[in-house]
Amino acid sequence: MQQTELADTPTDGIPGANMPDLDADAGYGGTATAEPESAAADIAGQGGTDAASKAGTATRQIPNTFVQIKDIRGVTRARALRLQDGDLIVSIDGKPFHEDIETFLDILFENEDEAGLLLTVFRNGVLFNIITKGPLGATLEYAKPERAELARKALEKFTIESKDNIVLFEVLRDMDRACRIIDTRLSPLAYLAPPVWVVYNKLWEVLVALVMIYVSTLAVHWALFLIASVLLSLYFKRAHLVLRRSFSLVRGYHMWMVIAARSELEVQKICRQIDEKSTFEMDLVGPVEPEEKPKKRRRRQKKPPLRAANL
After folding, report:
1. What pLDDT digit, counting tens, does each position of 68-88 carry?
2. For 90-125, how does the pLDDT look when each residue is reduced to its tens digit (9 = 90+)?
3. Which region holds residue 129: left if phi is over 0, alpha if psi is between -120 and 50, else beta?
4. Where are the domains of the chain?
5. What is the pTM of this model?
6. What φ, ψ does residue 300 adopt, rounded to 5°?
7. Which residues contact 53 (CB under 8 A, 6 or more apart)?
8. Could you count the other beta carbons within 10 Å of the beta carbon of residue 143?
9. Which residue among 81, 199, 234, 269 is least crowded, i.e. fewest CB within 10 A of its CB?
10. pLDDT tens readout for residues 173-187
11. What's the CATH number for 2-165?
């Protein structure tokens, strides 16, 4: 059984959110392939007969498993959201999801909520949320029973907040596991006081350019200075997120995770659970526990064997 999902390149703002609706025939489609692990799912995947149709209807509820990402290829929404092979989708908008893959695809395609869908993901024993506004563009399958059981037990203890209380964060990380967390919301400082916003985000190169523009325009005429200030405010209002991403990439960071959470503290806790060696610019969860270094043993030189004295 195969379904075709959109796999467009994400635009500015929420990763994987603002993607236009394109025809699958236009060459933008990724493939979401259901690989059933039960006999009933195999029958439903054949299609074209009354028996297969009935079997497909009977297996829309699959209580003992979850949908799992098998493979992510090309430029897709799943890649933009930094999903990984083996991730389980355990709930949609706070409700546990045990239905089949076809139903999952239908929900993503038919969603009309501008806020998107809140998906809860299970990875390496950790649950976290993401927001998507369309199909993921990934190959899907059903999780194995033992993994599904671990996810189910974790979900019972996990509290899923309403989308109204959740913010989308992007986590960038460098080779030393130092993380930089970006709040994707627009800060009023970005357009009301661009220099202050630039200093707060430590964009020193941008600050130098701003000062040069302000000084040069003011030296020419005060009206030109006002026009430049307005244009810069409009620019920062639209490009605030791109600027923070771009300069983070220049400084050696790469996109690691996208997490929908209530606060930066919650994001740091999730990152620390996934990678216990993660550190943060503004640490809210405490320092990393140092590893116990093995004690160095003194290397003793071997004594030369005693030689018989010459008589």
Report:
1. 999 998 889 999 999 999 999
2. 999 999 999 999 999 999 999 888 889 999 999 999
3. beta
4. 2-165, 169-280
5. 0.73
6. -90, 140
7. 47
8. 25
9. 234
10. 999 999 999 999 999
11. 2.30.42.10
